[in-house]
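User: Study the fold:
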Amino acid sequence: MSKRGHLRYNGFMNKSRSALAFIILMGIISLFSDLTHEGARSIIGPYLGLLGASAATIGFVSGFGELIGYAFRLATGWITDKTKSYWLMAFIGYTFNLLAIPMLALVPDGGWIWACSLLILERFGKAIRHPAKNTMVSFAASEVGPGKGFAIQEALDQLGAFLGPVLVFGVMALKGEGATRVSYGLAFALLGIMAIVTLGILAVAQRRFPHPEQFEKTPDVLGRMNFDGPFWLYMAAIGVMAAGFVDFPLIAFHLSKQQLLDPTWIPLLYAVAMGVDAMSALFFGSLYDRKGIVALMIAVMISAWFSPLVFLSDSFGLILMGMVVWGIGMGAVESVLKSVVTTLVPKQRRATGFGIFNTVFGVCWFLGSWVMGLLYEPALLVVVGLSIGLQLSAVPLLILVRQHTSIVR
């Protein structure tokens, strides 16, 4: 190898290693962030029930929170693309997203409306920071492969989502009082410490990598993002997948209401699902880099069957299997869906692209969660059938997307 070639090779390797280091550091931020808000998410269903909220209210608030968390990304993505203030948007978003969690410990008895407001504020913070964070990761992921890059980030993210519920379970179990206001309050307060740690690591990442957009030097070789048939087919597939994917607070409410599981143990069940989520993200992210959108089709055909296992069984073994299947779907969605957006959208408009994608996902998740929350009491079988049917209906749409574009083959 010539001296010039050797220097070029070393430069490429150094850039790749630096990009990988950035992805891992952002993954560590996601680890502590998810430890915080997913730890809270694992108990929020029973907690709202303890404060006096109904199943319909929990379904509505869960879905509406996701609507806020996703739909506002259309605006925040556009703002991020216009200003290129990736780190500023991330700091503002993480602050709202994380500090709302310990404030749940201060909600008074019967104050479910206040608790719901804090949950919506937490989701709004996620809407602010998510396009900026994903866009920064996508710049580095272009160096290591979109599927691999987002899979690593998602795996660390879900490690935090696993540890958060385990931490909450430990706090509530050691407290020895079961699911009481005091044990819930202590859990939320402890999660607040994790929130402060997250913000500290975010400051370190910004100082170490002030310009992550420099990782991706490639020109706009894929062309401008257009809104033709394949794009809208992909959006439709995302929409039906999201509408059919039951959010965990309703699952937790069901397990608690039907006395299928002691509320103290529900966070541990959620932790299992998050652990599966992490492994699923790595597997399907790698599969996407080799097989394209076929990876997403496989994941959907597996995850569609969690609802009968969770909602129609009184066997702990079958419920556990259902949560494993649910975790597979979550991991694939979090890694592969973002990878497709990274592949389709040029860097100049990528935050906007993530915003559009997340808006569709969030609106449909909200509508699905709300409807299934309303149907839970009078028609649980309809909830199960609706969940399965909506998710499986995404598969033919994804087949059409694959047939009409070579980018995601």
